Amino acid sequence: MTDFWILLTGSLVAACCAILGVFLVLRKMALVGDAISHSVLPGIAIAFLLSGTRDSAFMLIGAAVLGLVTVFLIQLFHQSGVQSDASIGIVFTALFAVGVILISLNARQVDLDLDCVLYGEIAYTHWNTISLLGIDTIPKAVWMLGFTLLLITAVIFLFYKQFKLCAFDPALAAAVGIPVALFHYLLMGLVSMATVSSFESVGAILVVGMLIIPPATAYLLTEKLGVMIGLSVVTGIVSTFIGYYAAVVLDASIAGCMVTAALALFVLAFLFSPSQGVIARYVSRRKAALRHTAS
Amino acid sequence: MLNDFLAILRDPNAQWIMIGCMLLGLSSGMIGCFAYLRKQSLMGDTLAHAALPGICIAFMLTGAKSILLFMVGAGLAGIAATFGISWITRYSKLKSDAAMGIVLTGFFGIGIVLLTQIQHSGSGNQSGLDKFLFGQAASMIGSDVRTMLIVSLFLTLACWLLFKELKLVSFDPGFARGLGYPVVFLDQLLMFFMVIAVVIGIQAVGVVLVAALLITPAVSARYWTDRLGVMLVLAGVFGALSGAVGTLLSASAPNMPTGPLTVLAAALLFSISLLAGPSKGLIAKRLQHLRARREHLAERRAGAAPSREVRG
After folding, report:
1. Buried (b) or exposed (e) across B174-210, using 16+ Cβ within 10 A?
2. Is A257–B113 a contact, with Cβ atoms under 8 angstroms apart?
3. CATH top-level class of A2-294
């Protein structure tokens, strides 16, 4: 049963992140996802200090607010003349520092483990169950991630056309009257929600990995957005499974193995993708050269 | 309050830590300037994360915790990461941000796997390896500071000696190539300097926050000057100042980590620069805007008056 819950939690994280990551990679904002996943830390700490419980609803709200603050600050500094990557770096390190200080100051009361935030402990998820709707065997993380996944799917499904246009051509989207800024913040809010609902079980590292690597893998395999989202989710889930069993064999960190597995899948796609891969390109170049010499 | 600080300054242990943090701020601030001008600010973050597997492998192979060996391991891992990024951007349609993200998380994931392997293998002497994640300035001792001193002096000297070359490569690599400079070599050299700065930084402030020491002082310095030489000096001073403030604050209260406080001090300096920088700061821009509007209105009034007379 333990295996089942860990695999389910991992797959839910992978699905949430893989869907959102597609839009981040397409908008060339992969590192904004990285920044958000670090800078939600003070939001979680503040929500905890204010509410005094590890109630997930408060943490979700706190993290979502901080995620939006991050995006807003990055935008603000960028507009006042700082290069965009430097403004990302300034904002997330400063906010992460605030989070670490808040947690260290209240180390006695705060039952938050810094190590846990960074690389999580997915192996313990199945012990942390809560009773909801009369069912009490389902882990808390699965409830939260399931809810987040439902929300993400609903929002993306409802506004698919808008998100698609914003991802590929923000200028055109603005010209046809889509509130681009609103959808930008909506996406970022979803990213922060995905981060916080996974941080307790899998840690920031797996979130960032799943946000960037599976979508990038899918990006190399297809040119259709719908297919890309599907492939990205499948790649994420497959790397969850490979990672988990590798971790069991190697006796190492589960989250770390999942990211490593995702990286391995990316390398495979990078080399062997039928249309974009290094080898396919080499072969087609050779063929073209042969044809050239033959004619 | 002041007496507290003076008492801290007299404590030899705190002196070491403070000197270490200041040197660290100084050298990474200077290197960060070149990174910022080359639009590679987040490279520091990537290199810091990529250093973890290098450090772990160095430890696994030798079983020793020496900062020099870690530097070699992290340096090799950093070089591998740089190659990874350039391969991904060259041979696929992915852009540099995604490439950096992939390499950063992928390497860090491998690092975490290795780290847990080391911890589970139960070989003694591994305790403290995980301190690299968050850094622990308080555990720095005399020999660490001496290593940092040598490394910082080396970095400062290298920046000074190679100033002209690095400046040209940062502003106009094409022109530098035309003049016959070894651009690729200088590129790699700069990356190597960044790796060194990151590795000594990781020990003090940890993997996540070390990027801030490279980015924040350099960006702050950019607000005060348009000259690269002045910018380097200012960034060094800002970095050293944040290191000093961070150490003092963390020593004056219990349970206060040095690294995050140093980063916050740097962020505070950045906010001040953002607001008060002459000509580029927000206040200066606002004043300039108001002045321009007043002049424009005055001009319009002067120009509009006769026309009204004509109409009347």
Report:
1. eebeeeebebeebeebbbebbbbbbbbbbbbbbbbbb
2. yes
3. mainly alpha
What is the residue whose two structure tokens read 């044809």? A291
Amino acid making up residue B220: S
Q: CATH classification of B2-210 is 1.20.900.10, yes or no? A: no
- The DSSP symbol for A150 reads H
- The C-alpha of A131 sits at a distance from chain B's nearest C-alpha, in angstroms, of 33
- Residues of B within 8 A of A77 (CB-CB) are 274
In chain A, which residues have pLDDT < 70?
A: 1, 53-56, 107-138, 200-201
Q: Does B101 contact A259 at a Cβ distance shorter than 8 Å?
A: no
Task: Give the side-chain half-sphere CA count within 13 A for A113.
Answer: 9
Rounded distance between C-alpha atoms, residue A113 and residue A103, angstroms: 9
Mind giving me the DSSP string for A67-125? Answer: HHHHHHHHHHHHHTT--HHHHHHHHHHHHHHHHHHHHHHTTTT----HHHHHH--GGGG
Residue numbers in B near A96 (CB within 8 A): 208-209, 260, 263
pLDDT tens-digit readout, B223-272: 998 888 899 999 999 999 998 998 888 877 777 788 888 999 999 999 99
ipTM passes above 0.90: no
Distance in angstroms (rounded) separating the CA atoms of residues A188 and A194 = 10
Nearest CB partner across the interface for B41, out of A83, A100, A260: A83
